Amino acid sequence: MLILVVISNLLFFYSLFLIARVVIEFIRMFARDWHPTGAIVVILEFIFTITDPPIKFLRKFIPPIPLGSVRLDLSVLILLIGIMVVQSVIGGIIASNA
Question: What residues form the membrane-spanning segments (predicted)?
Answer without folding.
Answer: 6-24, 75-95
